[in-house]
Amino acid sequence: MHVIATAGHVDHGKSALLRALTGMEPDRWEEERRRGLTIDLGFVWTDAERDPIAFVDVPGHERFVGNMLAGVGPVPAVLFVVAADEGWMPQSAEHLMALNALGVSHGVLAVTKTDLMEPDLAAEEAMEQIRGTSLGAIPWVGVSARAGHGLPDLRRALDALAARLPPSHASAPVRLWVDRSFTIRGAGLVVTGTLAAGTIRVGDALELARTEGRFVVREIQTLNRRADEVVGVARVALNLRGPGRVEIQRGDALMTPGTYRCTAVVDVRTTLCAPADLPREMLVHVGAATVSCGVRPIGGDTARLTLAEALPLRVGDRVVLRHDRGITGGAVLLDVDPAALNRRGATRRRAGELEAYPDRPDGMSELRRRGIVREGRLRAVGVEPPVPPLAADWLVAPELQHELRERLASMVARRAGDPSASPLRVEDARKALELPDVRLVPPLLTPPLVIRNGTIVPAEAPDTLAPVVRDAVSALERRLAGRGFIVPTDDELAELGLHSAEIAAAVRAGRLIRLAPGVVLLPETVGRAVNVLAELSQPFTAGEAREALGTTRKVVVPLLEYLALQGRTRRGAEGQHAVTGR
After folding, report:
1. CB atoms inside a 10 Å sphere around CB 22
2. pLDDT tens, 138-190?
3. pLDDT tens digits, residue range 440-452?
4. Is the pTM of this model over 0.70?
């Protein structure tokens, strides 16, 4: 399906033209038909099985420009209508400004009422205005809805327009701007809108951006036909089941949960207007939504908009700016998550930064600005990740990766040059590098650096101890060698420089075993103890173990608990012990 909106001055024959093209009545309300004036949005379509065209008929009267923008906002192409007998008119210009602000680049000009006047003069006048906008040099067709002249040519021009439209993205997250919401007896809540991209299936859960409420799609209709799924671009009607039947209204957005970031503060580049000339309070139109906003100029063509209501917005979205004197211009969103401008000189610095922001979303530029960001967060602001994650779902800009690797290697080298310094702990490296997740540290290591026991050491290092601690433990091993089951005293440990911090490091490295406060053993001493206990009559008591090892109860009780935890002994029901393995 292709979706095209109408545009043009009031009473230039937009609705009559759509009736002639589709055989359907776009004016839905009795007042519209009575007055011959489109007040709200109308929806009609060509009844074709293959590639039908749906039309969004918008009002041309200046009092209903908000309704017009709700219809044009999500639509990729336009059927611009100018009457041959009146030519270019004020609302023609305002509608064109809106299309230009939104960046609409596909369209056809229909010069209507050719039964009243030749179309060439009106077409020439209209094309002169249109050429300088985002639409450019679009084709035009003279037509009379009343007499039927030119209708075949217009249908061919519309078919050619549809063939030129860019393909939709079926896998994109859904953001459906609601343009109608109502209830049907026996069915419940129904909403309609133009699905610009993505796929909606029966049974899908959609999130209402304004409240974060979840609604389940019970039924889908598109062009009055039921469907199990619908792919944008398409006109859709959804029957929803959710927390409130009157909760959804025009301008709301239904979206794939977790895929858009709702924001009320955005930095923009203005189009067709200068920020300094804008009123400080304006209306912003995006999709089918209209919200008031405050305008804060930043640079010559950049500004910060503070919206009265948070909306699901992305980098690259285009909006229309309007106040009581009509449409003023538009803006393209550069940043939907900007930092506060609180410090002295922040606005001036921000102006310089925004100058480098591209109008079209660019993944690498966005990643470089953020440095480190979650993959989903980057997608939520509107850009695809330009590189694979470095760890888990974390993306790191390539230049920053290089810098972090050099800094990490330098930190490890400085510690290696200090005999009293213990190896760098992974968590300390994370803090020093200001990384948001400790899982980012391992991918930043350069050979021969490796991680052992939570510390970063060269691969050839015998353990994770500082050289002075390693020497002290080696001295202790030499002192106790061949002395049987011996527990070093606190004085012996202190004499060798093994205080609480050094002992803890040696325990982490596996060079010492701490059974309890003040009870420290060498791993080989524990092995000798097991050999001695294995020679006892099994099972044995703690007292028998104490006598066999020649030690105290203070030592033997935590030793037996440690051996039981290691699976080398087993404790019986009566408090006796037995060696199960050496």
Report:
1. 17
2. 999 999 999 999 999 999 999 999 989 988 889 999 999 998 888 888 778 88
3. 999 999 988 889 8
4. yes
CB atoms within 10 A of CB 224: 9
> What are phi and psi for residue 400, nearest 5 degrees?
-70, -35
Count CA atoms closer than 13 A to 348's CA, side-chain side.
3
Residue 379 neighbours by CB under 8 Å, 6+ apart: 173, 259, 385
What CATH topology corresponds to 261-355? Elongation Factor Tu (Ef-tu); domain 3 (2.40.30)
Amino acid at 285: H
| Integer angstrom CA distances of residue 513 from 481, 527, 531, 546, 550 | 16, 12, 17, 19, 19
Q: Looking at domain 467-579, does it have CATH number 3.30.70.890? A: no
Each residue's pLDDT tens digit, 276-331: 999 999 999 998 899 999 999 999 999 999 999 999 999 999 999 998 778 899 99
What does the block give as tokens for 252?
């709301």
CATH number of 2-164: 3.40.47.10, 3.40.50.2000, 2.60.40.3080, 3.40.50.300?
3.40.50.300
What stretch of H or E contains 527? helix 523-534
CB-based contacts of 512-515 (< 8 A; 24+ apart in sequence):
512/473, 513/562, 515/555, 515/558, 515/559, 515/561, 515/562
What residues contact residue 68 under an 8 Å CB cut-off, 6+ apart?
A: 7, 58, 59, 60, 95, 98
